[in-house]
Amino acid sequence: MILSSINYKQVFPISIECYMKKLILIQVYALLASSSMAQKQSMDFEKYEPNSTLVVPEHKLTKAKFPFIDVHNHQWDMGTRDLSTLTRDMDNMNMAVMVNLSGSNGSRLKQMLDNVKEHFPKRFIVFANIDFNGVGQTGWAEKAVKQLETDVKNGANGLKIFKNLGFSVKDKDGKRVAVDDPRLDPIWEKCGELKIPVLIHTADPEPFWESLDEHNERWLELVVHPERKRGPENPEPWEQLIEEQHRMFKKHPRTIFIAAHFGWYPNNLEKLGSLLNDMPNVNAEFGAVIAELGRQPVTALKFFEKYQDRIMFGKDSWVPEEYTTYFRVLETTDEYFPYHKKYHAFWRMYGMGLPDNILKKVYYKNALRIIPNIDKSLFPD
């Protein structure tokens, strides 16, 4: 058949023009449907939170089984605020004592201590802080030690060292002050003499120093908080900062230290255990790292059993509703439950189910032994 002689109206009941219009409409509808589906499917990782089909026992705790001491808290305005609002939140979760690590020093610290003594003397412990301005100047160390003695006399019961030591503290010549700088030795020695613990935060999680790529477990956190990204020269390699801290611990065996955030080894408990074995003057608290413990409940339980006399409860940021994650990991054997900040921990938690004797040590007994002047009458035994 010759194409030019075809009668298209006989061959096709629909005209070519009509057919093409329908074909175009079908394609448009398909594109619209595809676009609509894509819009519905478009969400970031933080928003994707599917309902789990897993059916297992759940124990969503809002209150600790025993009264507990939070050894890692920050209340910057404790000198001026109404402390009754704090104690109400504390009572709701069974927190007997809060340790405020942000006490500053001198008159500001005294204002906080006076407010505590006047209104809730049994419920708060305040740690002093060091003013590192002028390290290396003649008489700086003597002045810092004298201020610390005054702060303890006024009621401070410990010393908190922030991560600025090692990161941003500079001496009189503008050089970085290492954590184990010998010019700071008189401070650590004085703490041992005064029998007050030093709770110290050095560095940050090691992945903050690693490449920001698909292999970095903290990728989401660093994208959400890019200011947390570090590097070999910002200010130094992670390993160097941690080693500085450990050298300082070993150099002052008569001083009691509390390594904040499990010393940044909550994801390597075997290593943390070897450090505790090597340094009997060091203890650990798990502020902001409960997510690491909650994803390894079997290993973590063994660690808590072995080092039950060296571990204290710590939370760090003051967000009362987040404490439930801590209680659930410590007290229950629940499975596959979410952490409270997805960018911080995208994995699920599992409870360790600590026995009561260990739970009491973690919640309050170890802190009572290490931190002076906590009222023992607030606790059952």
Can you tag this structure with a few keywords?
381 residues, alpha/beta, 40% helix, 14 helices, 10 strands, disordered N terminus, 5-stranded parallel beta sheet, TIM Barrel
Notes on the structure:
The chain is built from 14 helices and ten strands. It is an alpha/beta fold and 381 residues long. It has one domain (71-331, 339-378): Metal-dependent hydrolases (TIM Barrel, Alpha-Beta Barrel), CATH 3.20.20.140. The strands form three sheets. Strands 4-5-6-7-8 form a five-stranded parallel beta sheet. Strands 1-2-3 form a three-stranded parallel beta sheet. Helix 10 (269-278) links the parallel strand 6 (257-259) and strand 7 (282-285). Residues 1-6 have low confidence and may be disordered.
CATH topology group: TIM Barrel
- Estimate nothing, just give the exact number of structural domains: 1
Averaged pLDDT: 92
Regions with little confidence, pLDDT below 50 for 5+ residues: 1-6
Radius of gyration: 29 Å
What helical percentage do the residues reach? 25-40%
The total count of strands amounts to: 10
CATH architecture: Alpha-Beta Barrel
Strand content: 5-15%
Largest sheet: 5 strands, parallel
Q: If helices are DSSP runs of H or I spanning 4 or more residues, what is the number of helices?
A: 14
* Strand order within the widest beta sheet: 4-5-6-7-8
